[in-house]
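My main concern about presentation is that the manuscript never shows what a single data entry looks like. The format is easy to grasp once an entry is in front of the reader. For illustration, here is how one protein appears when written out as sequence plus structure tokens:
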Amino acid sequence: MNKAAPTTAGDHHAPPSAPGLILMTADPIGGVWNYVLELSRGLASHGVRIALATMGRPLSPGQRREVADEANVTLFESGYRLEWMDDPWADVEKSGEWLLALEAELKPDLVHLNGYVHAALPWRSPCLVVAHSCVLSWWEAVRGEKAPQRLDDYRVRVSRGLAAADLVAAPSSAMLDCIRRLYLPLPDAQVVYNARGRTRFRPGMKEDFILSVGRVWDEAKNICALVRNAYDLPWPVYVAGEINQPGGGAANVDGVNRLGFLAPESLAPWYAAAAIYVLPARYEPFGLTVLEAAQSGCALVLGDIPSLRELWDGAALFVDPESAMDLQKQLRALCADRNRQASLREKALERSRSFSAAKMTDGYLALYSRLRGVADLSRQ
């Protein structure tokens, strides 16, 4: 049954004026990086400049080139630990001081945080928090149990940040529901769906292979469930993404064709050629790789979780992420059914058009307009 579409900020027309300069945070580790670049490209057409403050780890040479390609983005790079990392709080305090110094120097029209804790800083500018994911909801989805007591400090600090933010947004209703349940009610929070531009990811001549993209070591992505089934599938399986865990060790990828980590321009031909894209995720608040695969005309096989149901119900085949038998059965049947593949590809491509870069940009411009209105009222 299709879930009713939520009222989102992207449903409104873009406001007539846009902020001149935004101080935005990001990390180069996960999907937030591609989200920030996509949003920056959309905002450029409205004359918005981005002061991009990065934390978590140094950017790769490829990521620095990506930033250099965006004329409206100025990079401010650091290596401070992020709030979801182990024992981060000394670094979080230092990075907070660094961000406040940047705000004092740059005098942005607003602050856009892609994290939580720094929202509690004494900002002079109005502050938006975007809830891309969180440790507590990750723990529940992946571990199947309530987060342990040792994460209580994280819970308190995230709650404090959410309470201090002038506005909160999330990339799916499912993610926003998690934030409201685990931290604060947030009655005025908004959903703005993520997006990818349509120029890079397009359907090509399909070939008989299965593709998956993501951090292979990440239990949330659950790509290892596909890897374990690869020997028993009729088609070859190709996997792109990092296999080395940040803390050491590596995921087992025997039985699949390893592509390694690929930049978007290198991934695009693989998406274009793949007949089937698989992500049996346990936790995926939005899923940019799923959108990229849908834009490329892949038949989607996804983990049956609330966020992916919200976005792709009726346009994908869903599997129990905890059942290797279900995954193998569904994939074997789909490989043998050309008509169903064609139908799923068509439905995924059509649904992907709902997540346009223009709609995402308009959604954030609407949020920025509200934030600036709040700031104007506070000055009166």
Remarks:
- The chain has two domains: 9-195+356-379, 207-352.
